[in-house]
Amino acid sequence: MVSAGKPVAQMDAVDLDTDLAEAETQVGQFDKLLLSLRNLLKSAQSQVKASGAKMEHAEEEFSRIKKLFAGKAASKFEESDARLLEIESPIDLEKDSLTVQSIDAIREAIFIGRLDADEKMKRRKRNRNRATLYSPVEGVVLRRHESSERVRPAGEVLLEIGRLEDLEVIAEILTQDVVNITLGDPADVEGPAIGPHPIPGQVARIFPQGFKKVSSLGVEQQRVLVIIKFDPESFAKRRKAGRALGADYRMRVKIYTDQKADALKIPRSALFRSTSGTWQAFVVRNGRARKVGLEIGLTNDFKVEVLSGMAAGEQVILAPDSSLNDGQSVEANVIRQQPRQRIANFTKDLPDR
Description:
This protein is of the alpha+beta class. It folds into three domains: 11-131; 168-257, Elongation Factor Tu (Ef-tu), domain 3; 262-342, conserved putative lor/sdh protein from methanococcus maripaludis s2 fold (Beta Barrel). The protein has helices at residues 14-70, 76-130, 175-178, 232-240, and strands spanning 7-10, 132-134, 140-144, 159-162, 168-174, 186-191, 195-214, 220-230, 252-263, 265-267, 272-273, 279-285, 288-299, 303-308, 315-316, 341-348. The strands form four sheets. It has a six-stranded antiparallel β-sheet with strand order 5-8-7-6-9-16. Strands 10, 11, 12, 13, 14 and 15 form a six-stranded antiparallel β-sheet that branches.
């Protein structure tokens, strides 16, 4: 038994751990570099502000010295020194501004590198997380394909896990029969694995594509997969009664495509074709075999509904011999009598499934 979300297999993750640690270290280095550049950028921006204030001061000082020099209140040296400062200060401001732009460009480039490194780290984290395989459902391990450690290619199956409460039946139906089946049709699932009483179900899915398969008699047939869901209540009762089913069990399926209550029916083995192709049967009347034409309705592999041609309670001859003639004297040997009951037209999957 396994629980949903619990680990069921573990890969050797030494290399994955090394790759993840390398990616995390690289991201950490980018973060440190970005922090240093952020501090450097703040310093350069402060320098730009200082250069701007220095330029304003130089312009004001040059204007003041220039007026004093014109009034012969300042020397030529003072006027030249103020003029030089007024010329240099815009250049210094421009240099500091270019420094800010360069640092900002480097920071953006490193930030892009950091994003790439972060994506790389996320990928390696995903790879590392994939090294542990978790059960997607609460169920049971149906099959374990590997029992010991070894190298496996990608995509190989390690375990098959399922919920036995969600068992379904996959029936292979002949294409000429599946055309009469619709979603929701009732079905009976029977067989030795089921027990003496069938479990009811219904058609849950009809596959849209058929496939070829050779039968046990060597006949190539075209079939279609049909999914039958068990009736939940009946299935639960059967499990509680100790009749536990598992995956890949063999069973038989009857799918009811039509049904009629209180129908007159006879065994299908009593029917045969006339020379004109109509259905006929031998009925025992007054100790003689009488050949009668029949109009039939619903049919399955075992029973046939009779719409006209004979009355309820009359005896029919099963698998009549070809030498039997109309009006020939016969002695009745009753094999089985059944009360009138419903007849159902059903399609069953082939016995080798």
